[in-house]
Amino acid sequence: MNNDYIKFIGGICKTESIPITSNVEGLLIRVIASGLCGTDIQILKGIRNEKTEILGHEGLGIIENYYNKNGYFFKRGQTIFINPTDRHDTHFLLGHNIPGLFQKYITIPDSAVQNGVIIPIKYTLSPLFSALIEPIAVALTALETVESFSPMHYVIIGGGIVGNLIGKILGLKRKASSLSLVHGSNRSMEMSQSIMLPSVKHFVNDKDVINNLLKNEKTAVFITTPKNVTNSVISTTICSIQNNSVIDVISGIDSSGSINAKSASLLYNTRAKNICLENDDISYLQANKYYLDDTEKNSIFLTGHRGASNKKMIEAFSLLNKNQKLFHDMITHVVDFVNFSDFLNEIISSKNRVINGKYVLKTVILNSDGINL
């Protein structure tokens, strides 16, 4: 039996194949479907550098080998999600520093299996929806980080998948009327405004826009921008935001860079503490317009987080199961595995993320039609 996989190296993607040996170390999983997210696109575009050459961290799989080690038991044929973030091991980050889901089969090492990253699930939806579970879980986590502040206003900076999902969920909570979404491009704004969040106020990013949106106290700001601009967006936001407000940085942070001419490392470390949050024990920084200043602390709170807990993954699945129509329009492209490397190369060469006439938001890769789930 061979494993086909998409390898990203030298700025291009290509499909390769390797035999699967009978002595599998860990848990062998057949990938049914996976998702291409904004972080993957940043890697493909050279905005982020990661260790693995096989990307992909969202999706659905079926266990292929009997597994019984140290009290962890899985049987062949079980349908599962993989939590791409191991809260106990920073060296496990699926599709970033270990091979991800853009392959037909994936092996999860024993250490990660026994740290609980495998989530058995009775999956009844179309395989297409599986690519939305992890980003919905991230969006739910983001909303939880600001809940205790009882915000009256919401601002999302970054019109990618997580930004739009936060908007969808706020709509379910009947809070979309107090929401503004700031995009990085007109293309992004046009799609979100016309299809996904038509009742929300939409803007294209500049400093004046952010200044105007942050005039009120009790505002929650979610930053979901590409990693290469996140630090500057945080700087602009802190300068504009009013007291009794909170900023949640979901994006990657450049720890070697600065925020308002001060080291970003403290916020980076705070975000690193908030991995796969499982309770209300969230780390925050108290900040002001200078970012951090011991002599002048205002009631502005700054935080960030990585990944989502297994509990949030299951909550996301339940939310999606009850609201399939609401989330279906997030999926803009569906590609089979055979054509996926060509699709990725189109993304790499595209200047505006438009493929087949549509802006790429969420792409789903199908390895199977799902009939034999």
From TrEMBL:
The protein's name is: Alcohol dehydrogenase catalytic domain-containing protein
Note whether Membrane occurs among the keywords. Answer: no
**Which Pfam families would you find in this protein's record?**
ADH_N
Q: Does the keyword Methyltransferase apply?
A: no
Domain Alcohol dehydrogenase-like N-terminal stretches: 27-113
Alphabetized, the UniProt keywords read: Oxidoreductase
Q: Which InterPro entries match?
A: ADH-like_N, GroES-like_sf, Zn_alcohol_dh
A molecular function (GO) held by this record is: oxidoreductase activity
